[in-house]
Design goal:
The complex is a heterodimer of chains A (331) and B (649).
Chain A (H helix, E strand, L loop, with lengths): L2 H11 E2 L2 E2 L4 H7 L5 H10 L3 H4 L22 E14 L5 E15 L5 E6 L5 E6 L5 H7 L2 E3 L4 E10 L10 E9 L5 E9 L7 E9 L4 E9 L2 E5 L5 E9 L6 E9 L25 E9 L8 E7 L6 E16 L1
Parallel strand pairs in A: 3-18
Antiparallel strand pairs in A: 1-2, 3-4, 4-8, 5-7, 5-17, 6-8, 9-10, 10-15, 11-14, 11-16, 12-15, 13-14, 16-18
Chain B lengths: L1 H35 L4 H17 L7 H6 L6 H14 L4 H14 L5 H14 L2 H15 L4 H17 L1 H6 L2 H8 L5 H17 L12 H9 L4 H13 L5 H11 L8 H14 L6 H18 L4 H17 L19 H14 L5 H11 L5 H17 L1 H15 L4 H17 L8 H6 L7 H13 L7 H10 L7 H17 L1 H18 L3 H16 L1 H8 L15 H9 L4 H5 L7 E2 L37 E2 L13
Parallel strand pairs in B: 1-2
Classes of the chains: A mainly beta (331), B mainly alpha (649).
Chain lengths: 331, 649
């Protein structure tokens, strides 16, 4: 039903096989955004409100920001979200560890302000990609971010923390043990303890344990938190903990299950290692998600945010969040 | 009798059904026709929308051409765009009727709203009808000099379409010259579009040198590149990559100006910049600069690996090529390439390949541990590659051989069927590389002999038994059981291996081996069907009977060292692929001329020139072409002549 908007967008974005414009703010100026109000008015009164607004193209030197923007309260919020991509072995040792992050901003500013954002540890970032609004030469020369912000929500920069710049801090310490009982059932035990998280609680912890396809009779017990067993495409257990305080220990999850010996395996189906006594089962990994609000694992913080050009008072806010990116526990 | 009547009834029913459907369809089109001619603007608008909707879904609405055309004189931008889309779609089938529309186009090209001017020019360019072309020249000429940069940039793109249709007209009217002049335009969008167009025109006329980037234009392009949109940047980067700098200083300054492009968020910009830097390496001779460039290339490539799997795949294929030029570039970053559990399998294969390439002597230990984890995974193919990777590392780095063999034996003890086969094959290669070094391992190997059932693995195991026959006590039994079932072995590799090993055993331990080798040779020569096996058995027999010493010289000779290196590209192919880094060619690892077809060529004959289609990369949005694992095929690039909005489901 929105195909007219889709067509217009496509025709602006691509011209005969070469991409032309994909910047959302420019496109918003060229193609009218469908909204319920406009549609209702159009249907009721037959007047095409949309058609009468003549979109015009913005060819100024700041195509992401049009002139004449006004807001009642001038505010600017910065969110630094960092993601930890890590692979942790069963004994808790860190196999690989990587931190990357984004600086997202929400800007509600009047006029055409110029902002200067200074970070405390700019040299810890070894690969930074900026929004086109950022002045590249200022970053090259002084390592500060000078920019004219687009209006609304946008991603200012995404960066990667140099591997040797920060120690490998893990907000959550996990261990896993795998064993077999006398009755041939497999037992997986996962323990979660709070790690280094700057004295903030680790929240929204979710551990997802996929089990082998031939698993059945799955019994789960957890000490702290809730668990669910699902079997959408293959069995898996999900363990959620609302939060784990900085000194809490002792959260445990125990999964016990049996494995069917597969009789018919097609050539392309994943081969299950034959469960002969004493053999290890195939490699499994649990996927972990968590969030630590107010903590920056790379300790990159905003030093200052100054505004030039405009003269009104600016309300600023900064937030830090560390999340789990692709965080896996191998066992 | 009954059958015949039933069949005729069915046929009649089909005919009636067709008629009803046709009437219904005609009814719908008829209904649309009346709506299109209605006096109420809103109903006409709604009708146009429905026509386009039908067209998109594939229903035929070409009969409504004239009625749709009547609606063209409207102030509503949205409707105008839709009608133009309709015209582009059906222009080819009704070229005479399109002429009627030309007047409106020409008028629109002088409209006060720049968007409408641009729309008119673009649509006229896409129509691809010869008659329209004659009327197009005037408006196009005016629009190329239009005050609004938006119109200028669209007009520039239109020149490419005109050239495609008729190069003569484009040249006569000086359009190409206008585009060349647009390279010094004030607006960077226009400049980048001009670069795209000139590059494409170069493609269309490979013989004539329409445009060569010269050193005067280079500074303008470099200045414009920072202000361009990402796609424009790619076009300029590609043009610069093809340029040959006149002096070393010029090459150095171009590279330094473009280093910041490596930090762009768009993966295609990054890869095209890498392409440029690699190509300019032959012009820049200062070693410190070259090493600086290499160092700067590393972080952006690593960042590309944290994106979606499709982008990871493209990045990995390109990194594969880059590593063949700079093998040591990524040695410190080996952990980045470790496979995550939930990576799609195509990404895992590529990561494994890269891991083996970049491993250096220091990294072997962590990598071997990692490979051991991979060998426990579910996918059989991946496990095989992981085990082979362990073998490669062992062969490449002598210091890691011990650990590697230990890992392989641990894997063997998992007693998983496929793992055992692969491990045995790899162990044979490792033993061959380091003869007589791992004798203590062989007994453990023999314990698992029952699990070995694939022919390759069996042949490998028998070879090992033959080589180490002096170390194994019960080798006589092991070999004799195999020889019992000699004739049951279908694979000639196994039979040959048995013959070889029997001979070796005899030569090393004459007493114990005598009966065995006699039996083996007898079975091979008398009862075996395979001529190769028989011949070899005869040779051995005669050798042994005539002169055991020369037999020793033949059978127990030291073998040439084995290499298990990853497949490498030839030097010339590597050059070509680096010149196309960041495009589909580098992902498929075949130069573009092998799979690019121009639609005017004879079917099946690929173009003989390089494809330079700027927008063909998979950057944000994840291209679908990157999903498949290097399949070949005639990929039809849609040339500038294709109408851009022909969306068919």
């Amino acid at each position: 039903e929105n195909f007219t908007t889709v067509y217009q967008l496509l025709s602006e974005m691509v011209d005969s096989g070469s991409a032309v414009t994909t910047d959302t703010s420019v496109l918003r100026g060229l193609v009218p955004v469908p909204s319920l109000v406009d549609r209702v008015i159009e249907n009721v009164s037959g007047i095409g409100i949309r058609s009468e607004k003549r979109p015009d193209v913005n060819t100024s030197s700041t195509p992401w920001r049009s002139q004449g923007i006004r807001h009642a309260n001038n505010e600017f919020f910065v969110d630094i979200v960092e993601r930890i991509d890590a692979i942790v072995g069963a004994d808790g040792s860190v196999v690989s560890y990587d931190v990357s992050g984004d600086i997202s901003c929400k800007s509600r500013l009047t006029g055409m302000p110029e902002l200067l954002l200074v970070l405390n540890r700019a040299e810890a970032m070894d690969d930074v990609a900026f929004h086109p609004c950022v002045r590249a030469n200022k970053w090259q020369a002084e390592r500060v971010i000078g920019f004219v912000p687009p209006d609304g929500q946008f991603k200012l920069a995404s960066f990667h923390v140099a591997t040797d710049a920060a120690p490998r801090l893990l907000p959550l310490h996990l261990h896993a043990t795998v064993s077999r009982q006398q009755d041939q059932s497999h037992i997986i035990e996962i323990a979660a303890d709070a790690g280094q998280s700057g004295k903030r609680p680790v929240e929204k912890i979710q551990v997802r344990v996929p089990l082998p396809a031939q698993a059945y009779n799955i019994r789960v017990q957890c000490k702290a938190g809730t668990h669910t067993v699902s079997n959408v495409r293959s069995p898996q257990v999900e363990w959620s903990l609302k939060s784990l305080g900085p000194t809490e220990r002792g959260a445990r999850l125990t999964i016990q299950y049996l494995v069917r010996a597969s009789s018919a395996t097609a050539a392309s189906a994943p081969q299950v290692l034959s469960p002969s006594p004493g053999s290890n089962q195939s490699a499994l990994a649990a996927f972990v998600d968590f969030e630590v609000a107010g903590y920056s694992v790379s300790s990159i913080k905003v030093d200052s945010l100054k505004m030039l050009v405009e003269s009104y008072k600016l309300f600023k806010g900064v937030r830090y969040v560390t999340k789990a990116g692709s965080f896996q526990l191998r066992f | 009798m009954m059958n015949a009547t039933i069949q005729t009834k069915i046929a009649q029913f089909q005919i009636v059904k067709q008629k009803i459907l046709a009437a219904l369809r005609k009814g719908e089109n008829y209904e649309l026709k009346t709506e299109l001619n209605s006096e109420y603007k809103e109903r006409r608008k709604e009708a146009v929308r429905r026509v386009i909707a039908n067209m998109t879904v594939g229903k035929d609405v070409s009969g409504l051409f004239t009625d749709v055309l009547k609606n063209m004189h409207t102030d509503d931008l949205e409707i105008k765009k839709l009608i133009y889309l309709y015209l582009i779609n059906y222009a080819k089938t009704q070229p005479d009727l399109v002429i009627l529309a030309v007047n409106t186009f020409v008028k629109d090209a002088e409209d006060t709203n720049p968007l409408i001017r641009a729309l008119a020019i673009r649509t006229m360019g896409c129509l691809h009808v010869q008659e329209v072309l004659d009327h197009l020249s005037d408006p196009l000429r005016k629009c190329l000099k239009d005050p609004s940069p938006y119109v200028r940039k669209t007009a520039v793109m239109c020149v490419a379409k005109v050239y495609d249709l008729s190069p003569a007209i484009a040249e006569e009217n000086g359009f190409v010259e206008d585009v060349r002049r647009a390279l010094s335009d004030s607006n960077p969008m226009v400049i980048s579009n001009a670069v795209t167009v000139l590059t494409e025109i170069n493609e269309m006329a490979p013989g004539q040198n329409i445009w060569r980037l010269d050193s005067k234009t280079v500074p303008t392009l470099l200045a414009a590149i920072n202000e361009c949109v990402e796609w424009g940047q790619i076009a300029i980067l590609e043009a610069l990559a093809d340029y040959t700098p006149k002096t070393e200083k010029e090459a150095e300054s171009i590279c330094e100006r473009l280093l910041p492009r490596l930090q762009h968020a768009n993966g295609s910009v990054v890869l095209t910049t890498v392409r440029l830097l690699l190509k300019y390496e032959k012009y820049v001779h200062r070693a410190d600069l070259l090493s600086q460039f290499s160092k700067k290339m590393v972080p952006p490539l690593i960042t590309l690996l944290s994106s979606e799997p499709e982008i990871q795949y493209v990045a990995l294929r390109n990194i594969n090529i880059i590593l063949q030029r700079h093998p040591k570039m990524l040695s410190k970053e080996i952990r980045v390439f470790f496979c995550k559990y939930n990576d799609p399998i195509y990404v895992k294969y590529e990561k494994l390949d890269v891991l083996v390439r970049i491993c250096s002597e220091r990294n072997t230990e962590p990598l071997l541990n990692e490979l051991k984890e991979y060998a426990r995974e579910v996918d059989v193919d991946f496990v095989r590659r992981a085990i082979q990777a362990i073998g490669r590392l062992a062969i490449r780095y002598e210091s890691s051989a011990d650990k590697a063999v230990k890992v392989l034996i641990e894997l063997l003890q998992l007693k998983a069927n496929s793992v055992v086969q692969d491990v045995v094959v790899v162990l044979r290669d490792v033993f061959r590389r380091y003869p007589q070094s791992f004798a203590d391992v062989v007994p453990t190997l023999c314990e698992h002999i029952d699990y070995v059932n694939e022919p390759d693995a069996k042949a490998a195991l028998i070879w090992i038994l033959g080589e180490y026959s002096e170390h194994i006590s019960n080798i006589g039994n092991l070999l004799s059981t195999s020889i019992e079932s000699f004739l049951d072995e279908e694979d000639e590799g196994v039979q040959l291996a048995l013959v070889n090993s029997a001979v070796k055993f005899f030569l090393k331990r004459p007493q114990q081996g005598q009966a065995l080798v006699l039996k083996a040779l007898q079975t091979a020569t008398e009862k075996c069907a395979n001529p190769d096996v028989r011949d070899r058995a005869y040779i051995y027999w005669r050798l042994l009977s005539a002169d055991p010493n020369s037999a020793r010289a033949v059978a127990l000779v030291e073998m040439p060292p084995v290499e298990l290196e990853s497949a490498s590209l030839s030097a010339s192919l590597l050059e070509e692929l680096i010149a196309e880094l960041g495009s589909v060619a580098s992902v498929l690892q075949k130069p573009a001329k092998l799979f690019v077809y121009k639609k005017t060529d004879k079917a099946g004959v690929p173009r003989d020139s390089e494809m330079a289609n700027a927008g063909f990369d998979s950057a944000e949005g994840g291209a679908t072409s990157a999903g498949d694992n290097g399949t070949t095929g005639g990929i039809d690039t849609s040339n500038e002549g294709e109408p851009e909005l022909l969306i068919s489901f």
